[in-house]
Design brief:
The protein has about 120 residues and is of the alpha+beta class. It has a domain of about 80 residues: Arc Repressor Mutant, subunit A (Orthogonal Bundle). The chain is about 60% helix and about 15% strand. The chain contains six helices and three strands. A three-stranded antiparallel β-sheet has the order 1-3-2. A hairpin with a 5-residue loop joins strand 2 and strand 3. The longest helix has 25 residues. The chain is globular and about 55 Å long. The termini are far apart. The relative contact order is 0.12.
């Protein structure tokens, strides 16, 4: 007997669709770093995200490639060389990430001022 899924895998709305593509702990940061650096190799992304495991980084960039957010270019040489860059679709997200960054900067400043008042 087949188990029936409780929920559909289909996004419920466009906001759900978007957050399924860019949600999570790392995707927004990877998009931002690729925007800032144009092209990055796997090791460079790993160094930029010291809290990510190799397995999670591999899984994340694969998902982003499948969602057409990043371009993965493989050079067939020894040792293997792989470069990542933003796709046109990924680049369309940068103005929104900039806005989130500005919001985050303001919130960090508020927290710092609040902490200074308490001391």
């Amino acid at each position: 007997m087949k188990k029936q899924k409780k929920y559909s895998d289909e996004p419920s709305c466009s906001v759900d669709f978007a957050f399924r593509r860019i949600g999570g702990k790392y995707k927004g940061r990877i998009l931002w770093y690729l925007h800032s650096n144009t092209i990055m190799r796997y090791g460079e992304i790993k160094r930029a995200l010291p809290d990510i495991t190799a397995k999670m980084l591999t899984q994340t960039v694969r998902e982003m490639e499948e969602d057409n957010l990043v371009i993965r270019k493989v050079y067939h040489e020894v040792p293997p060389k792989v470069e990542y860059s933003l796709s046109k679709t990924g680049a369309e997200l940068i103005p929104f990430i900039k806005h989130l960054k500005e919001w985050g900067d303001k919130q960090i400043e508020k927290e710092k001022r609040k902490a200074l008042k308490c001391n």
